[in-house]
Amino acid sequence: MSKKQKSLAVLASVFLMLFTIAPVSNAMHIMEGFLPVKYCILWGVICVPFLVIGFMNIKKVLGNDRRTLTVLALTGAFVFVLSSLKIPSVTGSCSHMTGTGLGAILFGPCVTSILGIIVLIFQAILLAHGGLTTLGANCFSMAIAGPIISWVLYKLLQKANVNKRVAIFVAAFLGDLFTYCVTSFQLALAYPSEVGGVGASIVKFLGIFATTQLPLAVIEGILTVVIVIALETYAKDELSSLEF
Asked: pLDDT digit string (tens) for 94-126?
């Protein structure tokens, strides 16, 4: 193992250590049993094509250069740590950073969906954070919808010749916020308001989420830029193989 690879391994270990001291709360993504069965099935079915493509893309990425496995693992650890630091929010859910913007920027949204669902399964089983019945809904909002927005924004800003670090910040920031727009829609669809229906319920959920999620999204954008700078220092060859 080269010196740079050792440094990258140490960086990954630091994230895992941070996870061990993460505060535990009873808050959830969308908690176990909170959604009606039909919505659990619906969101799960929607996720399947993205996960299949993501699995195929991971095989392709690792087949091109096995060294990218270290970066992939670090990206997964980043998602794991950030999405485990949670602040209780509206009934049945919570506010937290997602960390998925980094994966979307480096590997694309479909690969990130695989990282995201692995994280969500571990959190549901080990931390009571989220749930197995609501896995599809949480996967779609955090591991699919958010990363797609981050990836699209990053590519568009690249084409517009925006500074790379600014592009990374914007992509991670707005990808985080879009995750919670989708979560608000999922909750509103399952529990529409008696007055105003789904639309009124979305506005209510978005308004409550905004107070905690806006500052968290800013922090996530900054942390994502910091991690990319570290990777450019210690994993330049691996990033080159990803055409980053």
From this structure: 577 889 999 999 999 999 999 999 999 998 888
Q: Can you list the alpha helix ranges (DSSP code H) found in the chain?
A: 3-20, 37-64, 68-84, 100-107, 109-122, 135-138, 146-159, 164-190, 197-234, 236-241
**Whole-prediction pTM value?**
0.83
Q: Find residue 193's DSSP bridge partners.
A: 197
Structural domain includes residue 21 = no
Q: By the 8 A CB rule, do 68 and 75 touch?
A: no
User: Could you give the 3-state DSSP secondary structure of residue 94?
Assistant: strand
Tokens 């509206």 — which residue?
90
Q: How many residues does the chain have?
A: 244
Contact call for residues 49 and 110 (beta carbons, < 8 A): no
**SS3 letters for 201-221?**
HHHHHHHHHHHHHHHHHHHHH
Averaged over 64-68, what is the pLDDT?
A: 83
Report if residue 201 sits inside a domain. Answer: yes
For residue 48, give Cα distances in angstroms to 30, 42, 144, 242: 19, 10, 11, 25
Give Cβ neighbours of residue 140 (< 8 Å, ≥ 6 apart).
43, 46, 47, 182, 186
- How many domains does the structure of the chain reveal? 1
Is 28 a domain residue? no
Q: What is the CATH number of the domain that holds 103?
A: 1.10.1760.20
Which residue type, as a one-letter code, is found at position 49?
Answer: P
Of 89, 87, 103, which is closest to residue 172 (Cα–Cα)?
Answer: 103
User: Residue 163: which domain range?
Assistant: 33-239
What are the phi and psi torsion angles at 138 (to 5°)? -65, -35
